[in-house]
């Protein structure tokens, strides 16, 4: 590991996440998760203003300048919240000139879902889905990437990013999306810290929402 990568591992990381009804922040001062500072709030009538207001309360200017990497969830989740947190993450990344990682909301919960359902076999795949209010589903596909004996270091790859599908195939494994603010926030930073060689410019990070807001 190069000297720069070692430094990146030890510097603070910032995560910004949202679900269908909440927005969340996490600040990790060091590699020790005991240093995590978390914030979760349910949506209200003025999401745009409250997101900025709560973020300014959450992290000081001094700590924000120390952030070495930002990671943001890009959906699928609440349409407006996904758009707003991506704009916030992109803006901060540009202003403090640090890398910005992005992961789908389903990828954040994939490890938790696999562990809960005892899916540990290497190359085994499964889908995570969310039923739409009208017809169809949003679904993404995930694959176990280690051998069966290495359960303590479960690694999962997103094979198919969440997209709209008309129906779920009976022959495939499917699990309903299940948001968990604290667990998903921590996984957001865990994935970012494993992604040291593939960091993105803020200009490449866009919201992932495969349907229009009216759906």
Biggest sheet strand order reads 3-2-1-4-5
Number of domains: 2
Q: State the secondary-structure class.
A: alpha/beta
Strand tally: 9
Distance between the termini: 46 Å
Number of helices: 6
| CATH level-1 class of the largest domain | Alpha Beta
Largest sheet: 5 strands, mixed
Task: Look at the structure and give the mean pLDDT.
Answer: 86
Q: Report Rg.
A: 17 Å
User: What is the overall silhouette?
Assistant: globular
Oligomer: single chain
Overview in brief:
The protein has 215 residues and is α/β, with parallel strands linked by helices. It has helices spanning 3-10, 47-58, 61-66, 79-96, 105-116, 181-193; strands at 13-18, 22-28, 36-42, 69-73, 100-103, 125-131, 137-144, 156-165, 174-176.
Could you walk me through the main structural features you see in this protein, from its secondary elements to its overall organization?
By secondary structure, this protein is an alpha/beta fold. The chain folds into two domains: 3-104 and 181-204, ATPase, nucleotide binding domain (Nucleotidyltransferase, domain 5, 2-Layer Sandwich), CATH 3.30.420; 106-176, no CATH class. Helix content is 32%, strand content 27%. It contains six helices and nine strands. The strands form two sheets. The chain has a five-stranded mixed β-sheet, with helices on both faces. Strands 8-7-6-9 form a four-stranded mixed β-sheet, covered by helices on one side. Helix 4 links the parallel strand 4 (69-73) and strand 5. Helix 2 (47-58) packs across helix 4 (79-96) and helix 5 (105-116) crosses helix 6. The longest helix is centred in the middle third of the chain and has 18 residues, at 79-96. The N and C termini lie far apart (46 Å). The model is unreliable at 1-8 (pLDDT under 50).
């Amino acid at each position: 590991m190069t000297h720069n990568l070692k430094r990146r591992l030890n510097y603070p990381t910032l995560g910004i996440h949202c679900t269908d009804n909440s927005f969340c922040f996490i600040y990790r001062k060091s590699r020790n998760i005991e240093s995590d500072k978390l914030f979760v709030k349910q949506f209200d009538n003025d999401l745009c203003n409250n997101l900025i207001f709560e973020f300014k309360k959450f992290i000081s200017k001094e700590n924000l300048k120390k952030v070495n990497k930002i990671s943001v969830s890009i959906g699928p989740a609440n349409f407006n919240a996904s758009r707003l947190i991506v704009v916030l993450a992109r803006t901060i990344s540009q202003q403090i000139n640090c890398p910005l990682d992005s992961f789908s909301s389903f990828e954040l919960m994939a490890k938790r879902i696999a562990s809960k359902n005892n899916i540990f076999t290497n190359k085994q795949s499964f889908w995570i889905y969310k039923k739409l209010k009208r017809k169809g589903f949003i679904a993404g596909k995930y694959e176990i990437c280690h051998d069966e004996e290495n359960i303590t270091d479960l690694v999962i790859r997103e094979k198919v990013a969440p997209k709209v599908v008309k129906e779920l195939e009976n022959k495939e494994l499917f699990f309903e999306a299940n948001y968990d603010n604290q667990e998903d926030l921590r996984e957001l930073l865990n994935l970012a810290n494993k992604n040291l060689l593939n960091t993105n410019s803020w200009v490449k990070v866009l919201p992932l929402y495969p349907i229009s807001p009216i759906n």
